[in-house]
Amino acid sequence: MLMVIGGSVVGARLLEQTSDVTDRLTDRLQPARTETYRLQTALVNQETGARGYALAADRQFLAPYTQGKEDEARAAARLRELIGDQPRLLADLEAVERQAADWRRTYAEPLVSDVASGESRRSVRDTAEQGKKVFDEIRSVWATQNADLSAAVADGKEDLAQSRTDRNLILGAMVAAFLLAGVVLALLIRVLVARPLQALSASSRRVSGGDFDHVITGEGPADLAAVAGAVEGMRQRIVAELEASRRQQDVLTRQTEDLDAQAVELRRSNAELEQFAYVASHDLQEPLRKVASFCQLLEKRYSDKLDDRGRQYIDFAVDGAKRMQVLINDLLTFSRVGRLNDARVEVDLDQVLTKALANLDTAITETGARIERPERLPRVVGDPLLLGMVWQNLVGNAVKFRHPDRTPEVRITCEEDADSPGTWRLCVTDNGIGIPEEFAEKVFVIFQRLHGRDAYGGTGIGLALCKKIVEHHGGHIGIDTGHTGGTRICFTLPSGGDTVDGAGSHTEEKTLA
After folding, report:
1. Contact predicate 424/380, CB 8 Å
2. What's the CATH fold of domain 2-181?
């Protein structure tokens, strides 16, 4: 950097010096020679005009004399501008001007006066002779002026040549110094940077090739040593992470083996569960049917021999057998969700809801319930049979758990879930007896009931079944605890290939005829 700055300063100074010498020669000395010739020509024109006027006594011959004086003044002024900083040339100009002024005073002006006044030819001839001597003195001063100006031009050319020579020598020396500095820098970079970098690169390739125990050492400048230290730290971190990964891999391998064993055990357990389901659906229900049938036969044949308590006992036995059959069927239905006949098709929730309402037509008609549903429900991907069970359980519960003092009103809504884009949020709202907030989770547990069988029928599996179906379809279900005046149960389903076009709804009323 110092060499570049110093070379720039020196080069600029040399160029400036050469430019100054060239400008002085071309812009001042050469034009000064031209103006000198104009000055001398103007003086010659004055002498020629004065002599011609003296010989012819005609004033038109004074025109060169008058014009010569003007040209002399302009040339002298221009010369002062060009050579004002050179005392020797300025002294020559002043000498020429003094001689010219003396010539005009002693010759030209008296001659013009004598001719104008009509003096004799002899007097005019004497004046002319005197003027010729004075003008010869002017010519001698011209010679000195021209010689000095030529010498100045020659000196200027010599200075220009010397300046160019010095410039070329110095610039050549600067180029040589730059080349030498480049060679020195190249050697220094080779020794201090390139070789340490090559060593670092070779060590890095060795480590990347798998030799993680190879230690990377830093050589050369402090920056390269710092880089080498950072790479070594990275190698150590990689080695530590690799060792930890190997230990983790061993743990994962053992866990995988345990999971495989558990999977085998789970498959065996599922096979046993399948066998149990088969037994429950066939072998267990047949004895229950026999118990119920024979109890009914006992009541029919020996009813006249049994008292009221005996008939009551038989009714208890028949009712227990029937409830056992219902529990077994519900349990089988719950266990089959997502396990048997898992259909994955595009489902129109409108059609599924219509079928569910048709299945509940008797209950809706008996209670006079009013069902409000959207004009259109979206399409989703899932099992139409299972989704129909969800609608049937939720709407059926809304009608069953009605308030004794109000006509059941069930409102079904559908909207996009703001918290989960690409998901539909469907809600079933009623004006029934409601569910206390502390039981909001309990009602989704299988066989959990909040009321006795005498108050409301059922086995307590409906909401548990809905929860399992909704979660099987990738959604979630829950009770809106902020709703009052009834119950609102909302569930979500991933969106399918359709959207809801309208926000309106229509009301389907089921009342007693």
Report:
1. yes
2. Four Helix Bundle (Hemerythrin (Met), subunit A) (1.20.120)
